[in-house]
Amino acid sequence: MKKFWTFLTLMASVFALSSCGGNSNDDPEDFTLSTDAVYIINEGNWGSANASLSSYNPATKVVGNNLFRRSNSVPLGDLAQSSAVYGDDLYIVVNNSGVVFRVDRQSMKIQGKIDGLTSPRFIALVSDTKGYISNMYTNQINIFNPSTCEIIGSITLPEEASSDQMAVIGGKLYVAWWSYGKKIYEIDTKTDKVVGEIEVGLQPWSVVVDNAGKLWVLSDGGCYPENPAGYEAPKLMRINPATKTIERTFTFTEGDYFSSRLALNGAADTLYYTVGGKVWRMAVSDNVLPSEPLLNEGVYYYSMAVDPVSGELYVGDAGDYVNSGSVSRYTAKGELVDSFSVGIAPGSIVFGTSKVE
To answer: Which terminus in the chain has less CB density within 10 A, N or C?
Structure first.
């Protein structure tokens, strides 16, 4: 009987290895993804170096998992934080590994790598030769050349501020001071100097730009009562970057939890956010928050993005944050189209039809 169970255990191990999506020799695989593929960046487990990359073809509903490792025979790393599409490339920010990868978005082959970073969070791309990398555990923003993947400079934020999500409007870069902060910093992308700041709600962690060039900022309010920086009701603000004034403030209920960041549709006239296990949608011209959710599935979605062409909504569910997560696809009306398994903790969703996250 002991030999029988040993045999079953061995066979289960062999099956598990053969079903990971790679070949037994771990040789690089060659494949070509659709130009309109949806890319899902799976964070993996903290400290386990099991982040991964998945893809989804909206036309065929074919899913590809563990694509980075399958294509390059190396692991993606520890805690894949965010991603961005720019031209023919996909940029992947891996936080704990301190690295940013540039891969061909059809073959997934590595085209470049920036390593030695402190704690990269997001990238903002200005041109083929200039981009920015935010960091959580330092007040330095790295400046890099996207074409060569070389660090070409840095910006020091005041007050020992950390940096998180960023947005580019004209010749200015807007940077959220998320951890313990309550400011948006304005940086001139020609001089790479901090030229202004805007006080917002506590811990601004998500920023997007609408079709009128207005900056939307979602602040989480501190997340928990014991936060040394304070604790308040989360806020959504619309800012006029030309005047640095807050044009509109929407205040949520103290304790509201936002499980994923803001998203915009392709026309940038409709805003999406998640709170209380629901997905909400509002026009950027609205004066009040919506009264009815678009989705009410009771799921605290870990990521969310809107296809800029079809208007379909994709939401990632991390489940128990230990096993494989899932992504669900909905029509613009909130009707379920498809649902599929991906890697652990799907934290970022971007589209081949978009320029940058």
So the answer is: N
Chain position carrying tokens 């070389």: 150
Q: What is the pLDDT of residues 98-121, one digit of tens each?
A: 999 999 999 999 999 999 999 999
> What is the sign of the dihedral through the CA atoms of 191, 196, 198 and 202?
positive
Q: Is residue 202 a contact partner of residue 257, using CB atoms and an 8 Å limit? A: no
Nearest to 356 by CA among 308, 315, 293, 317: 308
Average pLDDT over every residue of 196-212: 97
Query: Beta-carbon neighbour count of residue 307 at 10 Å?
Result: 21
What distance in Å separates the CA atoms of residue 223 and residue 247, rounded to the nearest whole number? 24
| Apex 271 CA angle, 199 and 354, nearest 5 | 105
Cα separation, 97 vs 53, in Å, equals 15
Buried/exposed 216-253: b ≥16 CB within 10 Å, e otherwise: bbbbbbbbeeebeeebbebbbbbbebeeeebeeebebe
- Which one-letter amino acid corresponds to residue 357? E
Q: What is the pLDDT of residues 9-64, one digit of tens each?
A: 333 333 333 333 444 457 899 989 999 999 999 999 999 999 999 999 999 999 99
Joined together, the tokens standing for residue 256 give: 């509201």
Q: Could you tell me which residues come within 8 angstroms of residue 186 by beta carbon, excluding any fewer than 6 positions away?
A: 172, 173, 174, 175, 194, 195, 196, 197, 198, 241, 244
Beta bridge partners of 219: 204, 235
Q: What DSSP designation does 295 have?
A: B
